[in-house]
């Protein structure tokens, strides 16, 4: 009976370690992508949105500013960029992990 409890406890601890490492990895990846998105992608997106809105009449720009549509557009585009970055990161790490052990032809 003691062997069963010891084995079950070991399996539970191993499962919790795997779960914690997966959750922490996702948190760190998300935090890193958020920082990169905020520092590098967001200014470019803001400039792009401002350039697209520059040709509109002043009344339309005032309405867009009053309803903060420009900020909503930047938020949506920023979320899209973050999602694409996460997909690229996951696919890159998956490809790298599949190549491990194959560098010497084994």
Rg calculated over all Cα atoms? 23 Å
Q: Beta-strand level of the residues, as a percent range?
A: under 5%
Mean pLDDT: 81
Distance between termini?
A: 43 Å
* Overall helicity: over 70%
Order of helices and strands: HHH
Low-confidence sequence ranges:
none
- The class by helix and strand makeup works out as mainly alpha
What features would you describe in this structure?
With 106 residues, the protein is an all-alpha fold. The protein has one domain (2-99). 88% of the residues lie in helices and 0% in strands. It contains 3 helices and no strands. Helix 1 crosses helix 3 (69-99). It is elongated and about 80 Å long. 0% of the residues are buried. The mean pLDDT is 81.
SSE blueprint:
Layout: H1 2-53, H2 58-67, H3 69-99
Keywords:
3 helices
Entry summary:
By secondary structure, the chain is mainly alpha-helical.
């Amino acid at each position: 009976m003691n062997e069963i409890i010891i084995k079950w406890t070991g399996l539970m601890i191993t499962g919790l370690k795997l779960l914690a490492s997966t959750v922490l990895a996702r948190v760190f990846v998300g935090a890193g992508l958020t920082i990169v998105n905020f520092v590098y992608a967001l200014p470019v997106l803001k400039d792009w949105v401002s350039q697209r809105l520059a040709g509109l009449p002043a009344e339309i720009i005032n309405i867009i500013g009053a309803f903060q549509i420009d900020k909503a557009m930047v938020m949506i585009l920023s979320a899209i960029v973050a999602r694409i970055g996460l997909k690229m990161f996951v696919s890159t790490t998956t490809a790298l992990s599949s190549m491990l052990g194959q560098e010497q032809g084994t």
